[in-house]
Every structure is written in C-alpha cells, then in structure tokens.
Amino acid sequence: MTLLQSWVESANSADTDFPLNNLPYGVFETNTLEPRCGVAIGDMILDMAAMEENGLIDLAEEPVFDVPYWNDVMELGPEGWAALRNRLTDLLAADAPDQAQVAPHLVPMAEARMHMPLVVTEFTDFYAGKHHATNIGTMFRGAENALPPNWLHIPIGYNGRASTVVVSGTPIVRPNGQTKAPDADMPSFGPSKRLDIELEMGAIVGTSSEMGHPISVAQADDMIFGYVLLNDWSARDIQPWEYQPLGPFQAKAFATSISPWIVTKAALEPFRTSTPEREKDLLPYLREPGPMLYDIELEVTMAPEGKAPTTIARTNYNQMYYSAAQQLTHHASSGCAMNAGDLLGSGTISGPEKDERGSLIELSWGCKETITLDSGDTRTFIEDGDTMTLKGAAKGDGFRIGFGDCVGTIKPAIKFP
Amino acid sequence: MTLLQSWVESANSADTDFPLNNLPYGVFETNTLEPRCGVAIGDMILDMAAMEENGLIDLAEEPVFDVPYWNDVMELGPEGWAALRNRLTDLLAADAPDQAQVAPHLVPMAEARMHMPLVVTEFTDFYAGKHHATNIGTMFRGAENALPPNWLHIPIGYNGRASTVVVSGTPIVRPNGQTKAPDADMPSFGPSKRLDIELEMGAIVGTSSEMGHPISVAQADDMIFGYVLLNDWSARDIQPWEYQPLGPFQAKAFATSISPWIVTKAALEPFRTSTPEREKDLLPYLREPGPMLYDIELEVTMAPEGKAPTTIARTNYNQMYYSAAQQLTHHASSGCAMNAGDLLGSGTISGPEKDERGSLIELSWGCKETITLDSGDTRTFIEDGDTMTLKGAAKGDGFRIGFGDCVGTIKPAIKFP
Q1: Could you give the CA distance from residue B201 to residue B350 in angstroms, rounded to a whole number?
Q2: Nearest Cα residue to A213 out of B255, B309, B26, B195
Q3: Helices (DSSP H) in B162-305: which residue ranges?
Q4: From the CA of B72, how many Å to the nearest CA of chain A?
Q5: ipTM of the complex as predicted
Q6: What's the rounded Cα separation, in Å, for the pair B218 and B216?
Q7: What positions of A carry a catalytic annotation?
Q8: Exposure class string for A134-148: b at 16+ Cβ within 10 A, else e
Q9: Any chain A CB within 8 A of the CB of B334?
Q10: In the record, what terms sit under GO molecular function (chains A, B) (predicted)?
C-alpha cells in the first residue's frame, strides 16, 4: 500500500502522522468549539459534530459525534465502523466531489486542545512482553527463574484503574506511597523516589461480550476498535512492598497516559504481523487464526525541564508474545463480560537489545547504570519537571500511520492532608 | 436506640429487615413500573420516582429518582443525603401528616423485581480480614508465614472487575479457566472444579476525590454513601496457577453478587465499633479518628437444588482489621482519583472459630474436611444447582437493620466457542 492522496494538502506528505490512510479518532475543543469528536487529516481536524449536523455524515438515527467521546460510534459495531471509514475516505480523497462543503469543517490542529478520546469503562494491564518480563524477572528473581512458570501459557494481566487514565499532555503528579527498605523495621510514607514509565500499546474494545460467555480469538479480534500509545506510569519503590500477594495496586493507580488519537484497526491492517513461534504450545482457546500483532515502530524520549529531549529507547510492537486479541480472549475466558470502552494495556514493550528497553528500570538495570541525556543530565528514574514522551508509527511505502505523541510532565507530590 | 414507629404497619415488627430506622435504597420494577429508585419500609417499597413526580420529595433541580441507579443521589453529597433521610423519616413516621398522599406510592415488595441499586464505576476488593488471611496463608504457606509481611501495615487490595457485579438473584455461570495440577506438565482449560464464595461487606463511595490528591481517613469516612452485602465468587483452582506475579484475575472476574439494598451510613450509625488493637502501629495516614467499623451479624447458607438451606457459617463485620474508610484512604493515597459509584469489597470476613469462616476453602480447610448439610449432602466446594445466600443485619434494641439476602444459584459452565 502507498500514500493515498487527499485534497487536504498537508495530508500528502511522507512525514505526516495523519495521511488519508490513517484517519484516527480523537476529541478536541477550540476557543469557540465545545469538546467533540474529530478526525485527524494532515495538520487539520475534521469537526465530526459539524459534519453530522450538516448532513455530510449520517451514520446513525441519533447524533453520535456531538459528544466528547467515541463510545457511541463503538456501539455501532464493525459494520458502522467500516461505513464511517469508507465515507471519510470518499469525502477526503483527492478527487472528492464535496470538497467545498467539507472544507469549512476543517479546524487547524494547532488551534485545538485534545481531550480523552473515549470514556474508559475499565482498564486492564497485561504483561505480554517477553523481553520485559525476562528483564524484570532476572533483576528480581535471577536469570534461572526470570519467567514465572505460567508466563508461556497465560497472557498474564491484572485489572488497573480507569479513573486515572488521562490524555497526553495531562500533568502527572508524583505519587505518595508506602515503601520499605529491605533492612528497615517499619515502612514509611511519602513521595515515590523511583518513578518510571512503561512503554505500551493500548487496545480499545469496541463491542461487548455477555457475562458467562467466553469468546474465541477471532471474535476478540473483531471486537477491537483501535489502538493508542499507552504509558503505564509506575512507582518502582511502592510496588515491591505492596504487591504480594494480590498484585500491583497504588504503584500503578495514580496515572496512565494515552495518545490523543485512536488509530483504527482498519488503518493498521497492512501492518499485521504474527506473534513469535511458541516455546510451548498454547492451549487451543488461545491459538490465533491469523496474524494479530502489528509492526509499529516505537520510541521514548526524556527531557529535563526546559531542555531538549533525548531518545532513550526504540522498539516495536511486533516484539510482543501475545496479541491484544489473545489477551481479550483470555480476559473473557472465565465469563467476564467485556464492554465497549474497555482499554487493554499490552504490557511493557522491550526489544532484545539494551537500547530497546521500554522502561527506566530496565534501561538503568535496576539503578545499577546511569542514563546520560544529550543535555548532560543523568537519570536513573524520573525527576520532577521531566517530560516523558512516547512516539509511535506504522511505516508504509512513503507514508506513516501515527498516533500523535503521548506526553507527560511530572509535577511534585502533594503533601498528605 | 429503639424501634422507630411508622404508619406502615409491617415496618413496626422486631423481625423486619426494614424498619423506619433503616430506609435502605434499591432499584425495583414491577409488571407496570419501569426500573426506578425505591426505599424499603417493612414489606413495602416507596416508589421514589412517583414521590418526586408528585412533589412529595424535592431534592434537586433535576429529577434524580426516575432512573435505575442511585448514583445521581450520591452526587448530591452528604448534605443531600441527610436531607433525603430526614424527609423520608418525616413522611413515614407514625405521626406523619402526609400519609394519605404517600400511601398510594407504596408498592408491595412481593410484586417487585430488584435490579442493581447503582452503576458500579469501579470495583476494588480488599483482603482486610485477619482470620481469613491467616487461614488462607496457613494453608498455602504454613503457619509461620501465614500473614504476608506487609499485611499489618497496608490494607491490601486489588482492582476487581465492575462489569460482572450483579444484584442478588442473578444466576452465576460456573467459570472456565486454566488450571494446572502441581504434577502436570501442561495446564488444561475447562470448568472450575473448586468454585467458592467469599462473605464480604461492600462499601459504596458516594463522592469523588481529585486525581493527585490524597484524602484523610476522616474525609474518606465522609465519602462513604452506604454498605451492601457482597459475595466475591472465587475459582480456587484457577487462582493458584494465574495469580503470580500480578494477582487474581480470571479466578475472580466472572461474578460478584451484592444485596439489593444499600444500607446508608446514617442507618448504621448506632452500630459503629472500633477496629481491633494494632499489633504494629499504623503509619499516621491510616490512623482512624474514631470507630469506623460496624457491628453487623452475618450468616452464610448453602442449599443443594430443591433442598432446604443449611447455615454453614456465622460471623460479624466487626472482625475486620481495617475499616472501609482506611481502605478508601489507602486507595487514594497515591493520588488515585475515587468516584461516586466505586465499590470497595471488605475482604472475606471470618471469625476466630471454625464455624465463623466466610469461605468454603476455609470451612473445608482446603478440601481436607467435608461440609455436611442438613439434607445429608456433603460438599467441599459448590456444585451446579447449589444456592449460596449471604444474610446480614445490625441488631438494635428490638429492631434490626437488614440488607436483604444476597443470593446466587450456580448454572453449568458454557462450553468454549
């Protein structure tokens, strides 16, 4: 597939994240427009509420775009999603007849402020990156016991906190929490000293499954609406003290950032790729009928306050051991009802090489090594004022499918009341 | 405090769960009424949507009762909650002047079907019963290592799944899942063979806290709207294989049942009691300014299909080591935003004695002992067709504050697609 041509000139560049091939979904406001659904095209946003109001898009009996979330569109299901994408492609293609009617509803991206693109009903975070799980396991349990015995059989996950999933650009307040040094008698309470990122992709569930009813991997893939970049902020000093026996809780609950744009499964279709060969056969319910990962290049940058960013890691979503479809199937396998708006974090994405690690704890190998930034500053974990940015794009022949950056700047912890 | 007299005669019995002292909140429908908010009084339900429509209750500018959830009332905050309770008490007291206007809006409970009383935004389950944690720990790790080292310092909890919290009476489908016998090479997938209950109380958060901002225990207590009975259904064979290192997931995700009535904090006020003496000092952020547990007698019954129930355990909510207010404070301590509609499970409530254990795995001591029912049937875990019922009431001088039973009957697992 090559770059599709649009009459929106800025969409025809090899460098834009948002060519006609992409058409990702977000929620934006401007000084004059209330928050509403929009579609990115080049350096513009198509105001979907206005398009609907003016009859240029007519997807459902009730309006679905004049709201600050894409959940109503999700509820239309895969046929509705395909109809919308076809209509948008027709309206924005180079030879589209309706340009004069559509053009007034394009808003410059530079004038827009982005909001959460969806209401996250529930958030689940997985642990499906084998290099990451091996790295973390080696640090905590030694190389022989790095991977837990269930890891090659189960896409391991835990329920996260939906109330603190925020859009890129939202400041992240350093969490407080209980920590205990191995040699201390008592724990203490205060700001985390080991604040970290986790570079992940988020899959957005677009249709619902019924309580009590498991789903196949093929059904799960059909249920996925799209993908975002996801930063699972983590307090590495809170987690070891709290996480036995019931898993991470406050070490993860304070914030999760996502990119402003939901890239649809349709846009990513040319980039499908397979999960790696299995070291142990998967149980039949988890076997994939086809390639369900995607080739998406990922990057992390770090910038001290007022200084230029340094790229500290590059990796690819194709490194995962389990796809989002497999994770969703496992999630529903007990009969757990899944809903439109559920967000599934992939787990930290690290590659096999040292500069492909998707978290600071891996990059600094548990504080043993220092990360030196281009500014000359050194880091093991994140300091107040630092800005962390995730970037991602699937790269085609002369075009890219981007997500928009996923950015967060750290603010000092708030003193306990 | 003694029994308050109402002109609704059935509310004046020492045996009713719903005297004027209680006034719990539920959602009901009948053959002629759509699901809506109702208040239990004796063997009747006061139709709050009708009361509001007829101007007998006027709580907010917009209607808040003609919906199938109490979340809108929660949003009014503690002042609104107090105003509502005062108004209801005035309207239903023995000497109330408005009886003739109110009486037409009473619906016999026997004609009503109960729905979920709230939209659960997120569900968190704790592990705050010391006897339970000690019993489980002894079975799995031996008596010396029964309590994890963090247990006396942290109200340990994990995020659960809100999509499968259901009202009493909803059938529970036996979950499928991965299990692995210790001597097996590979895991297998199929219906759980060790289905269990967990007897818990659920606290309902009624107001919201801001992301990044911790709250004190006093603030947390003010945020709690009310309490329900809660059965945290658990698959004991799925959990051991899946739960390391990130905690319980599918072993708990398939279902959680709650009682149909939310008993308000105001109704429980006379029954406040303190958490037990601390074995180790709590960190200051977790210390309670006053008694924040409640004296609520609890009971579990088990009935094979078509047979009479047997009481298999009796215990009391006052056995907990941490209160819901302490749990809520810890939950928000990292800066995790809490929302009206959040549900916090207390953790399994067991007493010190053998017949005070709130789960079958404790009652059967990990399958080593058989539970014999009055019908002559024996059980270690739950079989298809069995009905499990939680009962609870705070008992005053000649009156009781009940929750309505929390019932679930097990249906066979659904075959994987």
Answers
A1: 12
A2: B255
A3: 217-223, 239-242, 250-253, 265-268
A4: 18
A5: 0.97
A6: 5
A7: 132
A8: bbbbbbeeeeeebbb
A9: yes
A10: fumarylacetoacetase activity
Name the stretches of chain B with pLDDT < 50.
none
Note the pLDDT tens digit of each residue in A248-292: 999 999 999 999 999 999 999 999 999 999 999 999 999 999 999
The DSSP secondary structure of B175-193, one letter per residue, reads PEEEE--TT-SS-EEEE-S
- Chain segment A2-59, per-residue pLDDT in tens: 999 999 999 999 999 999 999 999 999 999 999 999 999 999 999 999 999 999 999 9
Question: B385 in the Ramachandran plot: left (φ > 0), alpha (ψ -120 to 50) or beta?
Answer: left
Same domain, A99 and A182: no
Neighbours of B393 (CB within 10 A): 20
pLDDT at A237: 97
Would you tell me how many other CB atoms lie within 10 Å of the CB of residue B98?
12
pLDDT at B403: 98
Whether residue A258 lies inside any domain: the answer is yes
As separate numbers, helices (DSSP H) first and strands (DSSP E) second, chain A gives: 11, 27
Identify the burial level of A313 via C-beta atoms within 10 angstroms of its C-beta, where 0-12 means exposed, 13-18 middle and 19 or more buried. Answer: buried
The H or E element spanning position B331 is helix B324-332
Q: Can you read off the two tokens belonging to residue A38?
A: 């929009």
Polymer length of chain A = 417
Least Cα distance to A230 among A158, A173, A168, A310 occurs for A168
Asked if residue A263 is part of any domain, the answer here is: yes
CB contact under 8 A, B255 and A211: yes
Nearest to B23 by CA among B11, B33, B10: B11
Q: Is A204 helix (H, G, I), strand (E, B) or coil?
A: strand
A vs B, Cβ pairs < 8 A, gives 222
A176 to chain B: nearest residue by CA?
A: B334
**Interchain pair A178, B212: CB under 8 A:** no
Task: Provide the pLDDT for residue B243.
Answer: 93
Chain B residues within 8 A of A331 when measuring between CB atoms: 250, 253
Domain, as residue range, for B72: 9-115
Residue A102 and residue A56: Cα distance in Å, rounded?
Answer: 8
For residue B183, give the CATH number of its domain. 3.90.850.10
- Last residue of one domain, picked from the residues B82, B115, B148: B115
Q: What's the length of chain B?
A: 417
Closest CA to A177 of A159, A164, A195, A163: A195
Domain check: are A198 and A54 in the same one?
A: no
Q: CB–CB of A331 and B253 under 8 A?
A: yes
Nearest Cα to A84, choosing from A45, A114, A113, A58? A58
Taking 70 as the pLDDT cut, the residues of chain A under it are none
Q: Is B365 on the interface with A (CB under 8 A)?
A: no
**Domain shared by A109 and A198, yes or no:** no
- Kindly state whether residue A298 falls inside one of the protein's structural domains: no
Of B105, B131, B132, B330, the catalytic one is B132
CA–CA distances in Å: residue B78 to residues B81, B82, B197, B205: 5, 6, 33, 11
- CA A222, CA A215: separation in Å to the nearest integer? 11
Q: Looking at residue A47, what is its pLDDT?
A: 98
| DSSP code at position B269 | G
| Cα–Cα distance, A384 to A304 (Å, whole number) | 9
Q: Verify that B179 and B202 share a domain, yes or no.
A: yes
Q: What are phi and psi of A188, to 5 degrees?
A: -130, 170
Q: For residue A287, how far is the Cα from the chain centroid? A: 24
Number of separate domains in chain A: 2
How far is B298 from B350, CA to CA, in rounded Å? 10
Position A1 scores a pLDDT of 83
Side-chain half-sphere CA neighbours of A144 within 13 A: 0
Dig out the tokens for B84 from the structure: 């509502």
Domain end residue (candidates: B80, B115, B150): B115
Q: Are residues A159 and A40 located together in one domain of the fold?
A: no
Shared-domain flag, residues A135 and A92? no
The verdict on B40 and B17 lying in the same domain is yes
Residue A326 forms part of a structural domain: yes
